[in-house]
Amino acid sequence: MQRANLKFLRNSVILFLLIWCIHQLFNLLPSVYEVLYLNGLFKVIRILYDYVLGYWLPVPMVSIVTVILLVYIFYPYKSERTFLSVLIRLISKIFVVLSFFYIFWGWNYAQESLSSSLELEASLKPDSVRLMHEAFWAQATINSLRSELSEDTISLGPKDFEKNIIEKEIRDELRSTLSAMNLPAAGRPRIRALRPKGMLLRFKTAGIYVPYAFEGHIDAGMMQIEWPYTIAHEMSHGFGVTDEGACNFIAFIACMDSENTMFRYSAMIDYTLYVLRDVYRLDKALHRKVYSGLSGGVKADIQAIRDNNAKYPDILPDVRDYLYDRYLKSHGVSAGLKSYSQLTGLVIQYKDKKGWNLIE
Q1: In the chain, how many domains are there?
Q2: Residues 94, 138: one domain?
Q3: Tens of pLDDT, residues 261-310
Q4: 114 vs 69, 117, 171, 336, CA distance in Å?
């Protein structure tokens, strides 16, 4: 039995090292990655799952995958006689599971950064004058969108549309946006709402993409006005985009290009909060001026989101941030968690380059 366990460990380590070597090869030769994986194996996996299983599966695939992984990793340890043999098999299976992470999705970390392909500087911080103009643009834009939805000064309630309708419309918008950015958009990634509510919000995140399940997920406890933008972000991961900042940017452009006012408002809520945080670090008086100029309805929605998030206090936020930051950096995202906050700079550069304001 011990000899079999050691053989399993050896083979699983060899498998993982092979997978890791391919990952490094793709990093060194992006053109090879694009041909063999992004437009090859990943595209095949994406299409096969989306149109064979994901199309009709009535429950989130992650629930099925979780059971499969738990059974695979922990069964049949009762037949093992020593702690060492149990430990060896556990480590071996973890190497196998990690290997399939790259096969299913992780090799996409070799993808050229979106900022480079669009000739934008991800780390560029706008100067104070440009940031001030952006803050007032965001203020005027979100006030206008809110007035289109409702003139009420109370927070928006649930709307008369289902998540699957949002999902389809967002998918169509994303395909157009990705195509315009010369990025592939094969398949039809699904986004599921996870329950019980707060599963993700307690870890300071509204959504997550699970490569083993081939689907993205949002927390069912989110305010519904946050759904379109968050769905667009997680669906971007489903199309193969790994960088968090890039997914934020793609989701913003896709929503803002939509004719659906709720989609644009959802994106602007998130974007305005990013801009306000940047302004606060720069000039607290300007922050007060911009915030005070937001309409009563916008302020009510922002407060409703904050109140809703407060229902789900963070669990070990510092540990979560440290681990995810290290994970991102180890996979070539040099900014780590800071990549999320690059949205303001990317949007400003994109608008200046295109010479348009996204909303006329």
Answers
A1: 2
A2: no
A3: 999 999 999 999 999 999 988 889 999 999 999 999 999 999 999 999 99
A4: 33, 5, 19, 15
> Is residue 250 assigned to a domain?
yes
Q: Which helix (H) or strand (E) holds 193?
A: strand 191-194
Classify residue 336: in a domain, yes or no.
yes
- 215-219 and 207-210 strand pairing: antiparallel
0.85 exceeded by pTM: yes
Residue 217 and residue 321 in one domain: yes
Strand partners, 216: 191, 209
Strands 191-194 and 207-210: unpaired
Alpha carbon of residue 3 to chain centroid: 43
Write out pLDDT tens, residues 189-202.
Answer: 999 999 899 988 88
What is the per-residue DSSP string for 99-115? HHHHHHTGGGGGSPPHH
For residue 171, pLDDT beyond 50: yes
Q: Checking DSSP bridges between strand 191-194 and strand 215-219, what pairing results, if any?
A: parallel
> What is the residue whose two structure tokens read 């008369």?
160
Task: Report the chain's C-alpha Rg in angstroms.
Answer: 22
DSSP state of 332: T
- Position 49 pLDDT exceeds 90: yes
State the burial class of residue 245 (Cβ atoms within 10 Å of its Cβ: 0-12, 13-18, 19+). Answer: buried
**Closest alpha carbon to 218 in 274, 277, 275, 166:** 166
CA-to-CA distance for 51 and 84, rounded, in angstroms?
43
